[in-house]
Design a protein that fits this description.
The structure is a homodimer of 133-residue chains. Helices cover 59% and strands 11% of the residues of chain A. Chain A has helices at residues 10-17, 19-27, 32-38, 46-52, 58-70, 92-126; strands at residues 44-45, 74-79, 85-90. In chain A, a hairpin with a 5-residue loop joins β2 (74-79) and β3 (85-90). At the A-B interface, α1, α2, α3 and α6 of A face α1, α2, α3 and α6 of B. Chain A binds a DNA duplex (20 and 20 nucleotides) through α4 and α5. Chains A, B: InterPro entries: HTH_HxlR (IPR002577), WH-like_DNA-bd_sf (IPR036388), WH_DNA-bd_sf (IPR036390).
Chain lengths: 133, 133
DNA sequence: CAGAATCCCTTGTGATACTG
DNA sequence: CAGTATCACAAGGGATTCTG
């Protein structure tokens, strides 16, 4: 990379330049938000998350939880029982994040139709071959 | 895919299940937000965007603009002059989106330090080998 | 000026199998 | 139950070159 040996990644540089990107890098993963939502009501177990989130693999659940934990968005509590029981819980910071994500949800719901139409119109105009997909 | 021949992609299924993801899929790209921000002040030319957004390649600028245009977030206006002049402008919908993204920026700025510390603490605890990166 | 086309590498994600 | 390990693959993104 042209950034050379500054010891700072391109990712980090972008994040510094744009705080929004910093959040997005944290939440843009395919599963992060769904985990945040699923855990919003209180402590939740690994398997409950796995069952509650349609289509997630065990691997991705683990990886995403680790990242969230690393950023201080979830806490991981191991109950030393047999069989093991691990509970994940949102931190206050994550709850705040969830609140602001609600804003985005609002925007999405208000404009979902509008955007779908824009997309259809664009495709009809620029990509006619997709019309019978 | 287990969805089979329903004619609907996995992406779309997730989006329907979770409106937030729908927005994120639209904005999570590496450059989308920076373009939205750069264009927020008014019409802006291709080259101005290219110069204003540190590190973006011509290819990604084009691709991202096309996606934004497709979703009805930016308009593309070609002035038939020589040399050609193309201006991009945010739609009202995109301006609304920008406003809600501001919320996220606020969250990021308020918690940037907190998260950096959480990350450092986590790495120190779980990944000591990264401490001299 | 504002792209389009091509090549290539990195990253994210899914599938599967194994374990304390 | 709650993971970890490994493989394999597709998409995202960067660098470069060409053009109306």
């Amino acid at each position: 990379m042209s950034q050379g040996n500054t010891g700072v990644t391109v990712q980090a540089v972008n994040a510094y330049a744009c705080p929004v990107r910093e959040v997005l890098d944290r939440v843009a993963g395919k599963w992060s938000v769904q985990i945040l939502v699923a855990a919003a009501q209180g402590p939740i177990r690994f398997t409950e998350l796995e069952r509650g989130i349609e289509g997630i693999s065990r691997r991705m659940l683990t990886l995403t939880l680790r990242n969230l934990e690393r950023d201080g968005l979830v806490t991981r509590t191991v109950h030393p029982t047999v069989p093991p029981k691990v509970e994940y819980e949102l931190t206050p910071v994550a709850h705040e994040l969830n609140d602001t994500l609600q804003q985005l949800t609002g925007w999405a719901e208000r404009n979902r139709v509008h955007i779908a139409e824009a997309r259809a119109a664009y495709d009809a105009e620029h990509r006619p071959e997709l019309l019978d997909a």
